C-alpha cells in the first residue's frame, strides 16, 4: 500500500464527479495551531455506506499543505510518507513512494527502522506532523540557581525566565518516540514536562559553567544570547538523536537575583564606594547639612533643634570632625602619590593612533617612533639650524631647510615644504630658506 501523486488542476471537476460516484474519502489535516505538533487526518467527504472504521478506500485522496509532513499508517506502522505539498492518491497496488521533500534521502534511514513489513493491516490512518517552528514554550527556574562569584567572593543565587522554540527535524522519529499512541491531536504543552526538565538541567549547567569561567554575576544578563546558544548546542545532541527535534532559539526574558543575594551585592557595592575618601567626605558633609536642615525645621523651634544637634555632636566626641580630617589627609596623600609618578606624556611622543609612548615603538600598535624633522649630523644629532647643536659642525651643502618668512610656520619635513604656507598662504621660495 502506498500513495501516488495526483495531478489535480483543470480536471478537478471530473475528479470531483468521480469521487462522488465512487464515495471515496478526501482526507485533510485537522486544525493545526501554533503549538500543535501532530494532528490526525480527517475525511472531508466520507462514504456513509461503509461501516469499517479506520480503513482508507483504494483511490482516496490525501491533501498535504506547506510545512506539513504526512504519514500513512497501517496497523500502527508508517508505510508511506511525504514532505511535499500536493494531492496524493492511495493505491493498494503501489509500493511506498516516500516523497522526501526537504529532508532528503536521510529520512529513508529512519523509515527503514520503523516501517511495517507484514501482511495487509486492518487499521489505516493518516497523521500530519507540524514542520513549522514551534514558538513561545515558556520556561523558568522554580528554585534559584546557585552562582559562586569570585568578585564578590560569595555564593549568590539567581533566577531566569524566558521562552524557547523547537523545530521537528525527523518527523518519523518524532512520531514514534515523542507522540502518544492513538492520539488524535498532540499539543507541545501536553508532552513538554519531560523536555522542560531536561531544558532546565541544561540551563543550570550553562549558568554553573559561566560561574566556573569567572564571569561576574552582574554580567550574566548581558550574556543571555551566549547562554541561549550554549543550551541549544547541548540539547540538540540529545534531542535530535533521541526524538527527531532540535532547539531552534532561546530567548531569556529576565535574569534576577534572589533577595539575599541582592542585599549582599548592595552591601559590597556600598563598601567599595565608601573606600574612596572623597565619597566619604561628601557623605560626612551631606550628613552635617541634613542635620542643620532638620534642626532649622524643628517643631519646637530652630534654637531647640540647634541645641539638640550641638549636644549630639558633643556626645559623639567630635566623630564627624575627626572623620572629615581623616578623609582630607587620605585625599592629600593620594594627590601626592599621583604627583610623584613620572609624567610620561610630557617626555614621550604621540603615535598616530593616539597612544603616548617613551620608547622607540608604540605600545598599542607597534609603529616605530617617527624620525625627527631636520638634517642629521655625522655625530647622529638631528638639527634644524645651520650648525650642529652637539658638535658644532656646519650643515652639509645641498640640504636647504625651509621656514615661512612671513609667519614663521615650520613644515614637518623642512627639506620638502608645501608650495604654499598653510597658515598665511605665502609661497615657499628661496626667501624661506633658513639654512
What does the model show?
- Helix content is 34%, strand content 23%.
- The model is unreliable at 8-22, 116-121 and 342-346 (pLDDT under 50).
- Strands 1, 2, 3, 4, 5, 6, 7, 8 and 12 form a nine-stranded mixed sheet that branches.
- The protein has ten helices and 17 strands.
- The chain is α+β, with helices and mostly antiparallel strands and 435 residues long.
- Helix 4 (188-212) crosses helix 5, helix 7 (277-296) runs antiparallel to helix 8 and helix 7 (277-296) runs antiparallel to helix 9 (319-340).
Number of strands: 17
Structural class: alpha+beta
- Tell me the span between the first and last alpha carbons: 104 Å
Stretches where pLDDT is under 50 for at least 5 consecutive residues are 8-22, 116-121, 342-346
What is the N-to-C order of secondary-structure elements (H for helix, E for strand)? EHEEEEEEHEEEEHEHHEHHHHHEEEE
Helix content: 25-40%
Radius of gyration: 42 Å
- What does the main sheet amount to? 9 strands, mixed
Task: Choose one word for the global shape.
Answer: elongated
Task: Give the number of helices.
Answer: 10
Amino acid at each position: 500500500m502506498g500513495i501516488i501523486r495526483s495531478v489535480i488542476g483543470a480536471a478537478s471537476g471530473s475528479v470531483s464527479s468521480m469521487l462522488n460516484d465512487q464515495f471515496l474519502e478526501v482526507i485533510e489535516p485537522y486544525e493545526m495551531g501554533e503549538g500543535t505538533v501532530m494532528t490526525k487526518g480527517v475525511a472531508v467527504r466520507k462514504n456513509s455506506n461503509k461501516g469499517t472504521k479506520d480503513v482508507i478506500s483504494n483511490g482516496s485522496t490525501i491533501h498535504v499543505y506547506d510545512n506539513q509532513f504526512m504519514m500513512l499508517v497501517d496497523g500502527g506502522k508508517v508505510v508511506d510518507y511525504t514532505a511535499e505539498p500536493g494531492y496524493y492518491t492511495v493505491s493498494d497496488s503501489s509500493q511506498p513512494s516516500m516523497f522526501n521533500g526537504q529532508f532528503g534521502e536521510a529520512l529513508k534511514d529512519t523509515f527503514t527502522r520503523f516501517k511495517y513489513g507484514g501482511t495487509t493491516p486492518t487499521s489505516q490512518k493518516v497523521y500530519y506532523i507540524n514542520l513549522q517552528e514551534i514558538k513561545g514554550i515558556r520556561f523558568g527556574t522554580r528554585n534559584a540557581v546557585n552562582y559562586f562569584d569570585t568578585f564578590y567572593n560569595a555564593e549568590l543565587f539567581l533566577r531566569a525566565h524566558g521562552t524557547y522554540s523547537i523545530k521537528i527535524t525527523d518527523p518519523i522519529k518524532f512520531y514514534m518516540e515523542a507522540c502518544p499512541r492513538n492520539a488524535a491531536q498532540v499539543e507541545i504543552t501536553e508532552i513538554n514536562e519531560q523536555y522542560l526538565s531536561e531544558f532546565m538541567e541544561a540551563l543550570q549547567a550553562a549558568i554553573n559553567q559561566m560561574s566556573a569561567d569567572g564571569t561576574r554575576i552582574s554580567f550574566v544578563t548581558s550574556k543571555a544570547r551566549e547562554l541561549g546558544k550554549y543550551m541549544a548546542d547541548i540539547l540538540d545532541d540529545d534531542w535530535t538523536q533521541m526524538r527527531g527535534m532540535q532547539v531552534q532559539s532561546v530567548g531569556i526574558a529576565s535574569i534576577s537575583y534572589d533577595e539575599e543575594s541582592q542585599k549582599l551585592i548592595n552591601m559590597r557595592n556600598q563598601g567599595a564606594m565608601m573606600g574612596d575618601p572623597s565619597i566619604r567626605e561628601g557623605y560626612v558633609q551631606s550628613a552635617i547639612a541634613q542635620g542643620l536642615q532638620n534642626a532649622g525645621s524643628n517643631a519646637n523651634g530652630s534654637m531647640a533643634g540647634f541645641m539638640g544637634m550641638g549636644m549630639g555632636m558633643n556626645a559623639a566626641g567630635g566623630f564627624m570632625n575627626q572623620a572629615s580630617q581623616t578623609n582630607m589627609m587620605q585625599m592629600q596623600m593620594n594627590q601626592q602619590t599621583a604627583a610623584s609618578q613620572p609624567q610620561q606624556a610630557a617626555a614621550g611622543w604621540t603615535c598616530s593612533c593616539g597612544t603616548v609612548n617613551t620608547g622607540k615603538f608604540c605600545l598599542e600598535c607597534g609603529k616605530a617612533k617617527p624620525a625627527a624633522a631636520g638634517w642629521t649630523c655625522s655625530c647622529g644629532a638631528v638639527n634644524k639650524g645651520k650648525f650642529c647643536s652637539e658638535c658644532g659642525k656646519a650643515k652639509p651643502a645641498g640640504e636647504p631647510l625651509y621656514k615661512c618668512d612671513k609667519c614663521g610656520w615650520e613644515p614637518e619635513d623642512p627639506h620638502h615644504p608645501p608650495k604654499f604656507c598653510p597658515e598665511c598662504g605665502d609661497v615657499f621660495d628661496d626667501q624661506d630658506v633658513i639654512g
